[in-house]
Amino acid sequence: MTTSRDDRPLVQVDGVSKHFGEGQTRVDALVDVSIRVYPQQLIALLGPSGSGKTTLLNIIGCILSPSSGAMALDGEMVVRDGRWLRGDLRRLRLEKIGFIFQSHNLLPFLNATDNVAIVLQLAGVDAANARRRAIELLGYLEVGHRKDAMPAHLSGGEGQRVAIARALANRPRIILADEPTAALDSKRAQIVMDLLRKLAIEQNAAIIAVTHDEKIFDRFDRIFQLRDGRLDDDGEGQNRAAELAGAPLV
Amino acid sequence: MAMIGIYRGLVVDALTIARAPAVDLWVVEANTRGPFAEASRIPGDIRDAVARISGVAAAGSITYQTVEAQYRNAKLRLYIIGYEPTRPGGPPEIVQGRGIARNHYEMVADRTAGLELGDRIHLGRNTFSVVGLTQHQVNTGGDPAVYITLPDAQKLQFDLAPPAQRVQLARGGGTASRDTVNAVIARLQPNASAAAAADTVRRWKHLSAITQAAQEEILSRSLVDRARRQIGLFTSLLLTVSAVIIALIIYTMTMEKLKPIATLKLIGSPDRTIVGMIVQQALALGFIGFSIGVALILGIKDYFPRRVVLEPDNVLMLGLVVLGVCLLSSGLGVRAALKVDPATALGG
Fold first, then answer.
1. Which of B3, B109, B238, B347 counts the highest number of beta carbons within 10 A?
2. What is the dihedral of CA A202, A208, A212, A217, to 10 degrees?
3. pLDDT band at A145 (very low <50, low <70, confident <90, very high)
């Protein structure tokens, strides 16, 4: 694990727009959005419902095609003029991006170890090594004692840690989190944020989270606020964490 | 599987009586396909003529008749086979007791009749004693076979009841000869040709000859053909219903797992992995159902009123059909899974 800081952005979104439908039914979900996220940064995407934050997260996660604009992930240009430059987006996600969900979204038919190991196996690691690395990761996230437990038997905090272990399994440098603390009480939410901070530094990764959780605003390095599909700032993001901490959401 | 077993049982039952005498040639009334598919009556002395045909090792006269008898205050349907104890046509195997040793009023019955050794039963105007028991000797209708001597059988089949006899005499008809049989069966010498012997018989214009192979063909094609088609259609219907049920179960199970499927897609799982999981699930369902079905039918098949015959090749074939049905049924679930948008994993 490295602690070196890189000035090159891990996520670079330039002039990305996304619209759904055409003519009178056209909805502009994102309009000319540009952001840059650097290694070891924790970024929050804020905004009211329908502001476009999930659309932006889906585009960065290579799940949704933008209508226009460009995007580079970890130094590789993946979208230009609204078109994917790589055909295998599944592989791209597997290699570069880890996902953390609101409810942990662990596969209910696999135990904690296998939930982590499956990501490694999908990347081509053999089953024995995948399990070994999964157990290491669970230990690192302090849920090693629950390695054989099924998701239904994990507490909310334990489940979210296993989900974080899964997100980290392939050592992605970009981690996208969708309301990572929404299902947790405030104490556990702080623990998870501490953990994400630790991971961002130790793995030299960038973490982008969509959140409404006011309790954790002060844990982010930068906060991007979206309104009607447009960013409120210049794309570098203001250090508004302290400003927004405790303030009501718009 | 029960349906296949019942069908196989029907075929086996249909062939049992024809195979029992272990003969090569059936001589029957001209222009008939008797004695099972059509009625056939020929004079009893034909047996001597058939026995003298070149290549014939032994010949015997035989009669077949279904009767209803009274046994322990219940009606009992019996398939009476009259044969000459020293000639072909008798029971193939006696599993209990002995064969017929007296010229009259002894019988060997199949176990499915429920008769026991020493039982006495009225047939026509006479009482017969059960001296031996056979196994699996039933006719195409499933009625248990009962072997009696040819004279007893002829008396039972061709004697008129006394009032009818009196009417016949009053009309000046006289009494017809009782020496009539339904068929003459012939066992050939080892190198003799059944076709050649049959050709010889056919030259006598009042007779027909059917080889054993042709007789079996008649029985399995003509006699059980409707039952075969009926059971075949019913089995197809059951398989179709099973396929629909499996498809709906798989579809419902897939719909319940849309979020995990979306998550799998999001974390980079290829479609083939997801398809494989759904197909695996369908196959597991099919295998469990098939195993339970096999265990169940093997456990209860002997309690069916008619024979249920399950051969390993039938089980294997049905297993392959179930495999195909499962693969087909999983299509609906696979289609639903492939349409899942990975983005649905994000968001509450």
1. B109
2. 50
3. very high
Quick check: pTM over 0.90?
Answer: no
Q: Give the integer Cα–Cα distance in Å for B250 and B281.
A: 8
Spatial CB neighbours of B66, under 8 Å, sequence gap ≥ 6: B77, B78, B79, B80, B139, B141, B143
CA B46 vs. chain centroid, Å, equals 30
Token reading at B314? 């039938």
Q: Which of B263, B265, B346 lies closest to A54 in CB terms?
A: B346
The encoded tokens of residue A69 equal 């604009």
- Phi first, then psi, for residue A222 (nearest 5°) are -140, 150
Alpha-carbon distance of B278 to B280, in angstroms, equals 5
Does the interface ipTM go beyond 0.90?
A: no
Alpha-carbon distances of B275 from B251, B254, B323, rounded to whole Å? 12, 11, 16
Chain B contact probe: residue of A45, A49, A63, A122 with most B CBs at under 10 A = A63
What's the full length of chain A, in residues?
250
pLDDT digits (tens, 9 = 90+) for B96-118: 999 999 888 999 999 989 899 99
Which residue, chain included where needed, has tokens 């399990």? A131
Q: Best interface-test mutation with A: which of B259, B265, B267 has the largest number of A CBs within 10 A?
A: B267
Tokens 């994000």 belong to which residue?
B346
Q: What is the CATH number of domain A38-63+88-244?
A: 3.40.50.300
In one-letter notation, the amino acid at residue B189 is: Q
CA nearest to A100 within chain B: B346
Tokens of B208: 């027909």
Question: Is A90's CB within 8 Å of B346's CB?
Answer: no
